[in-house]
Write a structure and sequence with these properties.
234 residues; alpha/beta; Uracil-DNA Glycosylase, subunit E; six-stranded mixed β-sheet; 47% helix; binds uracil
Length: 234
């Protein structure tokens, strides 16, 4: 009978969707083992930890040779700050001083970023700071697409572990990579976007502000929006 057939098709689709959901959460087959049930319970729960931590992500990265930047780098610049931060800043790539020290944003652009963070009543220790790529491109050239492709999965895992309320991308490459967009930062900045449900506000890179100080006004407008949402959302 047509009615039974429709019910059968709807049921099959529902079971199919549920099996896909189980597979995505790590369950294989109709498995009700303790481990699978723990995986299911953990799914989407911010407060219950999975085995992934920033340390395990760093260990996976290892002595990375996934792109050619390893040939000229001194140090991998993984990221720094509070693993429970509500706000993550994402820059482009380490520069000379970052390559020397292994710390993100410690050169001239970093000093300006520190001032921007303080201007929104936060400190470097209370946020998390990292980059799209973790090794310095020679001569501070722009990151290449293959370098971004090799490195950005680690950034995405860092963000998924931290689960911040806000992301502020600095410059074109960070905004375009996380938003999967080809738009310029001047078009993307000025309002919130969503990155996997996390509010993301793009703004200009501090190194750009050092060259074009008249753009500081735009960044301040972006930071006021960020600060307001951060405080309201606290
Ligand atoms: N510029 C960046 O984008 N990141 C750094 O860590 C330093 C400078």
């Amino acid at each position: 009978m047509p009615e039974n057939k429709e019910t059968f098709v709807a049921l099959t689709e529902e079971i199919n969707t549920y099996l896909r959901f189980l597979a995505e959460t790590g369950c294989r087959g109709l498995d009700c083992s303790k481990k699978s049930l723990e995986t299911l319970n953990r799914w989407g729960n911010k407060n219950v930890s999975s085995s992934e931590t920033l340390e395990t992500i760093r260990m996976d990265l290892g002595d990375c040779r996934r792109c050619n930047l390893y040939t000229s780098r001194k140090n991998i610049v993984f990221g720094a700050g509070d693993p429970k931060a509500r706000l993550v800043f994402v820059g482009e790539a380490p520069g000379h001083k970052e390559d020397e020290t292994g710390e993100p944003f410690v050169g001239a652009a970093g000093n300006l970023l520190t001032k921007i963070i303080q201007a929104i009543n936060l400190s470097r220790d209370s946020v998390y700071i990292c980059n799209i790529i973790k090794c310095r491109p020679p001569g501070n050239r722009n990151p290449m697409p293959d370098e971004i492709k090799a490195c950005s999965p680690f950034l995405k895992r860092q963000i998924m572990f931290i689960k911040p309320d806000f992301i502020c991308t600095l410059g074109t490459f960070a905004a375009q990579t996380l938003l999967n967009s080809k738009e310029s930062v001047s078009r993307l900045r000025g309002h919130f976007h969503s990155y996997n449900g996390i509010k993301l506000i793009p703004t200009y890179h501090p190194a750009y502000l050092l060259r074009y100080p008249n753009k500081k006004r735009d960044v301040w407008e972006d930071m006021k929006k960020l600060m307001k949402a951060y405080q309201e959302n606290g």
